[in-house]
Amino acid sequence: QDEEKWDFILVSDIHQMGSVKEIKRKKFLDELSKKGFTIKKIEDKKLFYGVRAPKHFFRKYQWLLRNPDSRLQDLNAQQDVPVTTRIRLVNFILHNTVTPDLEKLHDLMKKNVFEAAFPLHEKEEAREFLNVKWARWRDIFCQQPIEKIRCYFGEKVALYFAWLGWYTYLLGIAAAAGLVVFVAGFSIFNSSQVSKEICEANDTIMCPLCDQKCPFWLLADTCMYARITHMIDNEGTVLFAMFMAIWATVFLELWKRQRAKVVTNWELYGWDEDEEELAMELINNLQHEPRRYRHSYWRSTIVLLLVLLMIVVLIGIAHALVIYRVVATALFSQSDSEFFREQANLVAVITGAVLHYITIVVMTKINRRVALFLCDLEKPRTFSQRENNFTIKIFIFQFLTNFSSLIYIAFFLGRINGRPGNYVRIAGKWRLEECHPSGCITDLFIQMAIIMMLKQTFSNVVEYLVPWLAHKIRKRQKHSKKKNLVLGEEEEVEDPCKKQWLSNYQLNEVNIFSLFDEFLEMVIQYSFTTIFVAAFPLAPLLAFFNNLFEIRLDAIKMMRLRRRMVPRKANDIGIWLQVLEAIGILAVIGNGLVIAITSDFIPVQVYKYTYSPCMTENSTTVDCLTGYINHSLSIFHIKDFELDTNLAEDIVDLVKNGTTVYRDYRNADDYSYTVQFWHVFAARLAFLILFEASTRAGGEAGANGAMHVALCVKLIAAWYVPDVPQSVKNHLLDEKHNNLRKELRWVTPQKVL
Questions:
Q1: Nearest-CA neighbor of 632 among 593, 669, 603, 610?
Q2: Which of 115, 157, 397, 473 is the most exposed, fewest CB within 10 Å of its CB?
Q3: Measured at the alpha carbon of residue 78, what is the angle toward residues 73 and 81, in degrees to the nearest 5?
Q4: How many CA atoms lie within 13 A of 713 on its CB side?
Q5: Helix axes 273-284 and 83-95, enclosed angle (nearest 10)
């Protein structure tokens, strides 16, 4: 039975005899034969080649990478090689076998000599267990069999699911806290003094929201939105934001402990990736010389400039979304539909959020291509180094794609648009949009809710349906060909391997970044869950339910819809841990800025403890926030509107004294900032410093923006100038290589058979 187990399958089109492709294929297969590979050919609509490596490859691997404390163990001791190790080693040899034309398998696949290369989903005990106990929707609340996942997919995949399970488990705590805060917000839905004053402001006339025939409007018109805003924007949200900043840190520290336990049980805590790669290179070719570490300042400069250029492009796309919202608000304000006229701002926000989601989908594909191109320019030494470089670049690009519009809404919307009579305009025509009348945090809440809902519903449906439909179509095509056999024609007796090879070939293709895509999806979700959670307390709850389905969705894809991944050994989640720690820092900064700048929490507190009746009149019978709304509004004289402003015709009837109001802290005579503005500004800055200091242990957070900029510059400089000289790295590499070569020279094929 073992003789019919095949390590890898190579698939090729049936090429014409004597053609260039057929000759190249034969040369590659001849090289495998010289190395002792057993090759079996099966012909169907394609050519299938099953390859099985000789046993001495695996004995050498076990000998070279045995436990260092057991150097005297018997070389001839028979010990089963895990299937994951067989596949990983064979995959390495296949991709590093060189033909007489100096071509590798990767080059031959580019030239369509081979179409595919993949390991088989075998009928192993681990696979049967995973299909029954893991890759099913009904097991959505069950614990994952991490050890079985490791036995079938290798350590890297097992660590991904261990991390995702741990993240989801602790996310349940954050989701419960967020739900409590959100539900508690309902208790002040009708009792908030601020929203009460807005709902009763039937004689407070606000400035028009556009320049062309937009009517003056009553502040009381925004009553419902005000209640919703203050349901989100309250003291509980501040505490929840601090909780989430601490949660993000605790989650990562607990994961490090959990990971240490897991990899220690696997005896991989001190595993050396370089040593394993050197061992496989020597097993493949004893004369192989290791690829040297190299660092080019010229190449690094080019890559850095191109990354900055891409960042500028992504910021430009964010600006385009801003322009869309500005123009859309103006157009909707002049619409024939009464609904669009009255809800112009809200419709622009919603359509802008949908457009932002479409931008994310499109730019994800472009960002991937750009990041791969930049990695090729860097010429990393190993696949692991290439993966790390790619991870950093694609995360930066994806972060800006996903969050640039949110950053604008959170920190710039309504703060750079000027004031009535002196608005900031795009191309001198369209004035920049203002926050929703009920507050800027409402716009951020709407934007986050729409993007998260679309990403966690539509994107997940597509993620599952596309491979499922592709698999079903391939199976149907296969069955239809069987039915088309001519009556009376006897079908050949099929090789027992043919059915298995064909069924694996019909599964969806996997690539080296298949697992990377899953990690990236979860890390971006983690960013949404932590960075702007102050504006959307339900984010952890949505993420929690999404992850429950995501675990089973990924399991079903890997077990039934995709070809088997090549197992990779690992003892951690790699560069993703540093990315998650960076997100934790951004979460502290982001939530602090949302509360200090976007939210009305600080202005409300300044009024309550400085200007309220409780402070000025020592009154204890009234609510301390009585009068806050009038205090936060400024007077504007209609005669000071810009000349090209076309006001509605009913202006005289509505505005009796020639003045109206708008949200800001400005003097009525010269529109300069009032003392209250500077009090609020100082309080915002003080809160930001205290928030960061209280949520990051040991005062790690910067006290101001300059320190955060300095941190970014420091990280770029650390990347640009390696901390260990290349000569030292190469010296250590040579030592490992020479030690392994000495070990291997004592091993002959006869000893290991």
A1: 603
A2: 473
A3: 105
A4: 6
A5: 60
> Alpha-carbon distance 125 to 256, whole Å?
30
508's tokens:
């969806």
Per-residue model confidence as pLDDT tens digits over 392-441: 999 999 999 988 888 888 888 888 888 888 888 887 777 887 776 667 78
Buried-state track 323-353, b at ≥16 Cβ within 10 A, e below 16: eebbebbbebbeeeeeebbbbbbbbbbeebb
Which string of DSSP letters, residue by residue, matches 164-214? HHHHHHHHHHHHHHHHHHHHHHHTTTTT-HHHHHHHT-TT-EEPPSSSBSP
Write the pLDDT tens digit of every residue in 663-677. 889 998 889 999 999
User: Residue 680 carries which side chain, given as an amino acid letter?
Assistant: V
Q: Which residues contact 176 (CB under 8 A, 6 or more apart)?
A: none
- The DSSP letter of residue 600 is S
The residue written with tokens 């190469």 in the block is: 730
Write phi, then psi, for 679 (nearest 5 degrees). Answer: -65, -45
**HSE-CB of 578 using CA atoms within 13 angstroms:** 9
**Among the residues of 297-382, which ranges form H helices?**
297-333, 338-342, 344-378
Taking each helix axis as running N to C, give the angle between helix 726-745 and helix 273-284, from 0 to 180 degrees, rounded to the nearest 10: 50
- Whole-angstrom Cα distance, residue 370 to residue 532? 27
Maximum separation of any 2 CA atoms in the chain, in Å:
105
Comparing CA positions, the residue from 259, 250, 373 lying closest to residue 306 is 373
Residue 541 token pair: 């709850």
What is the DSSP code (8-state) at residue 603? H
Residue 89 and residue 94: Cα distance in Å, rounded? 9
DSSP string computed for 83-136:
HHHHHHHHHHHHHT---TTS--HHHHHHTTS--EEE------HHHHHHHHHTSS
Residue pLDDT, tens place only, 602-661: 999 999 889 888 887 766 678 888 888 889 899 998 888 877 676 655 554 555 567 888
Q: In what order do the strands lie in the sheet with 659-663?
A: 217-218, 205-206, 659-663, 633-637
Amino acid at 384: S
Q: Tell me the sheet residues that pair with 9.
A: 50, 118
Q: At what angle do helices 155-186 and 223-232 cross, to 10 degrees?
A: 130
Q: Within 13 A of 394's CA, how many CA atoms are on the CB side?
A: 26
Q: How far apart are CA 729 and CA 449, in angstroms?
A: 48
Q: Which helix (H) or strand (E) holds 425?
A: strand 425-426
Tell me how crowded residue 656 is: count the other CB atoms within 10 A of its CB.
8
Structure tokens at 505: 């070939």
Q: Looking up tokens 């009585």, which residue turns up?
A: 626
